[in-house]
Design goal:
Layout (H helix, E strand, L loop, with lengths): L16 E3 L23 H13 L6 H15 L4 E6 L10 H22 L3 E5 L13 E4 L2 E4 L13 H4 L5 H21 L19 H22 L12 E6 L3 H6 L1 E4 L5 E3 L4 E4 L9 H7 L5 E5 L5 H11 L8 E5 L6 H15 L4 E4 L7 E2 L5 E2 L2 H18 L3 E7 L17 H7 L10 H16 L2
Parallel strand pairs: 2-3, 2-15, 3-6, 6-9, 9-10, 10-11, 11-12, 12-15
Antiparallel strand pairs: 1-7, 4-5, 7-8, 13-14
The structure holds erythose-4-phosphate, phosphoenolpyruvate and manganese (II) ion (MN).
EC number: 2.5.1.54
Protein name: Phospho-2-dehydro-3-deoxyheptonate aldolase
GO molecular function: 3-deoxy-7-phosphoheptulonate synthase activity
């Protein structure tokens, strides 16, 4: 399932990664403008937390990060497709075995749909095991005349609307680290320990409520079963089907945390941010001469940058020069989130400018963040049709320009929530009252996610 056309890099020989206290440039960001950072309440607790984080083991290893860069290079050239999905904001409370396995199963199901439809390897990546920090439009939230600091993700403060919970508590960085470690442990167990075996393609569907996408998936799973049995009787070796590669990603927003988890790789002597394999810079923090772009320009991980509707081709070129000066395959991913209404007009000039410069980036669509609206009953939501329309627009633009539509970035969950409107078993506003669980942005539920996978698989098949 993960057969790729280019060989992976040589296996890494050492996992030892030392602290990066004196490595030149890693602290340059501290002298630059920085936005969306917490105002910690307790300076001493902050120092202690950062000191502890700096000596804790890495969450991911440099060799894995290099392997991912290699995989992303394939996607940039149209030889693989990136599927990146998970919560808008993970929470400590929801880091349970059931919830995590539901999300992994959903991503595996989507990947099977995409792989089978498009006959292309799918790189599986969670917005998981570290997606705890949120940029917000406002520093505060007011409810019934009471104003408190906005919720900024579990790594900073609690969602509960009380002064105690909303205070910015640096000890939460340690809890984020340990929750990420536990989540990664489960991810590794699920994806390496037999659960991801392609012969269990039916089992992944069990426990999810029956719905139209579920039935369509079942019939695809039957086809895969038949193919697997045929190969089995031909004496094929199924070792490769037992495990899948699964990578962890999050927005690298909280720079004190990211810096504290940066280690020098013993093989290469270079810094890797070991908080996740892939890190992205958000739409609100991508200013060229500001802290986030500077810090991420200095670590070896593959980096993503979200690009909203106001980005210009020149902005994109400057980001490439800063983040990928060597033009290294797989290093840089642009995740466009322009909104269904804008994408067909705003994306082409940016892609054209990048292509004309000779740079090769991986183009990924995030059809969520440009399509957020407020429902009549006051919930942040997205219409499934708008999400689909942005995905279609993304494919249309790349097909017209002869460039590669290389991936899909989604806010989704394995749970049967009601947060986005529509789908073939439609969610309406009334359902929000009982089944809206997100603490930040609305996610596609299990069925909507599968439906999306079928739609994208059709778009990829037309390639
Ligand atoms: O996930 C993204 C952002 O954190 C979110 O869209 C910002 O939302 P807000 O406008 O509610 O702060
Ligand atoms: C904050 C996010 O997105 P953006 O930076 O694109 O608004 C997000 O991915 O949750
Ligand atoms: Mn979001």
């Amino acid at each position: 399932m993960t057969q790729l056309s280019t060989p992976p890099p040589a296996p890494f020989t050492s996992t030892s990664q030392s602290g990066a206290a004196d490595y030149p440039g890693l602290d340059e960001w501290r002298s630059l403008p920085v936005s969306q950072q917490p105002s910690w309440s307790d300076a001493e607790a902050f120092e202690r937390s950062v000191a502890e984080l700096s000596i804790l083991p890495p969450l991911v290893f440099a060799g894995e990060v290099d392997l991912l860069r290699h995989r992303l290079a394939d996607a940039a050239q149209g030889r693989a497709f990136l599927l990146q999905g998970g919560d808008c904001a993970e929470t400590f409370e929801a880091a349970t075995a059931d919830r995590i396995s539901g999300r992994i199963r959903t991503i595996l199901q989507m990947a099977v749909v995409l792989t089978y439809g498009a006959a292309m390897p799918v790189i599986k990546m969670g917005r998981m095991a570290g997606q705890f920090a949120k940029p917000r439009s406002s520093d505060v939230e007011t409810r019934e005349g009471v104003t408190l600091p906005a919720y900024r993700g579990d790594i900073v403060n609690g969602y509960e609307f009380t002064p105690e919970s909303r205070a910015h508590d640096p000890r939460r960085m340690l809890q984020a680290y340990h929750t990420s470690a536990a989540t990664l442990n489960l991810i590794r167990a699920f994806t390496q320990g037999g659960f991801a075996d392609l012969r269990l393609v039916h089992a992944w569907n069990q426990g999810f409520t029956r719905n139209p996408a579920h039935a369509r998936y079942e019939s695809l799973a039957r086809e895969i079963d038949r193919a697997v049995k045929f190969m089995d009787s031909c004496g094929a070796d199924f070792e490769a089907l037992k495990r899948v590669e699964f990578f962890a990603s999050h927005e690298a927003l909280l720079l004190d945390y990211e810096r504290a988890l940066t280690r020098i790789d013993s093989r290469t002597g270079l810094p890797y941010d070991t908080s996740g394999h892939f890190l992205w810079i958000g739409e609100r923090t991508r200013e060229l001469d500001h802290a986030h772009v500077d810090f991420l320009s200095r670590v070896r991980n593959p980096i993503g940058v979200k690009l909203g509707p106001n980005v210009t081709g020149d902005d994109a070129l400057r980001l490439i020069d800063k983040l990928d000066p060597e033009r290294e395959p797989g290093r840089l991913t642009f995740i466009t989130r322009m909104g269904a209404k804008n994408i067909r007009e705003k994306l082409p000039p940016v892609v054209e400018k990048v292509t004309a410069s000779g740079a090769q980036v991986l183009w990924v669509t995030d059809p969520m963040h440009g399509n957020t609206v407020t429902s009549r009953n006051g919930y942040k939501t997205r219409r499934f049709d708008d999400v689909v329309d942005e995905v279609r627009g993304f494919f249309e633009v790349h097909h017209a320009l002869g460039t590669v539509p290389g991936g899909l970035h989604m806010e989704m969950t394995g749970d049967d929530v009601a947060e986005c409107l529509g789908g073939s078993d439609p969610i309406d506003e009334a359902a929000f009252e009982d089944r809206y669980e997100s603490v930040c942005d609305p996610r596609l539920n299990h069925m909507q996610s599968l439906e999306m996978a079928f739609l994208v698989s059709e778009a990829l098949t037309r390639d």
